[in-house]
Design goal:
Layout lengths: L24 H11 L1 H5 L3 H5 L8 H13 L8 H10 L4 H4 L10 H19 L4 H15 L3 H25 L5 H5 L8 H18 L9
Helix pairs in contact: 4-5, 4-9, 5-8, 5-9, 7-8, 8-9, 9-11
Length: 217
């Protein structure tokens, strides 16, 4: 997640130990299933830093992205791949958490930590099974950001964040979330997602406009 406020350096963040295979494929697979719970319970750092009430979890974010992918009408996109990519793009955060820029972790180190986490999931937990390889391939494709599906899913990542920010403004009265819009909507490149972003911006303007009241007669 890209937006947050100043806070202590990343030396304060503690990472859980990497899983060590038991040698039993069934037990190790269950360990992977259990580690996914962290995605349901860990809150997205940017919202926490902005004191948003009831901040969404990492999996909340990925789930809506997956549904958004199903709504696209672009015939050139492999929609099934986009849905799966949306569901795995932040998978490494089950191990390393949602690292924010303000924590001071260099981008290269963040990539190393996330790659290490994915390698652990794929090899220690899922024994490099065909399913593990599919997950790893999708994650790497997203990280590389070169395919049309990866670029589209990145746009969904941007749009979903802006959509969530608008809901926090509307539902919780948040007034400090403009950076989330500034760092997302202007960078969307897929035409259809651009249209969604424009509609969201128009809706936001209507919500923020002072209500018009008839003068008493």
């Amino acid at each position: 997640m890209s937006e947050s406020v100043p806070a202590p350096s990343y030396s304060r963040r503690a990472f859980p130990p990497l899983y060590v295979s038991s040698g039993n494929a069934q037990l190790d697979r269950l360990a992977f299933f259990h580690v996914l719970e962290r995605l349901k319970t860990q809150k997205r750092t940017g919202w926490v830093d902005h004191n948003v009430p009831r901040p969404e979890s990492i999996s909340d974010h990925m789930y809506r992205m997956a549904i958004l992918a199903m709504c696209v009408s672009d015939p050139e996109l492999d929609v099934s791949k986009c849905v799966m990519m949306a569901l795995v793009h932040d998978l490494a955060e089950a191990q390393v958490g949602d690292i924010a820029p303000r924590e001071g972790i260099p981008k290269a180190e963040k990539r190393r930590l996330e790659s290490e986490a994915m390698h652990n999931f794929v090899h220690e937990m899922l024994h490099n099974s065909p399913a593990a390889q599919r997950i790893e391939t999708l994650w790497k494709e997203y990280e590389e950001g070169e395919s049309k599906e990866a670029k589209f899913v990145k746009d969904l990542d941007r749009f979903e964040m802006a959509c969530q920010a608008s809901e926090y403004e509307r539902n919780d009265g948040m007034q400090t979330l403009q950076p989330f819009f500034d760092s997302s909507l202007p960078f969307i490149r897929h035409p259809e997602v651009q249209e969604w972003g424009q509609a969201l911006s128009e809706e936001r303007r209507r919500f923020q406009a002072p209500s018009t009241r008839r003068s008493p007669e």
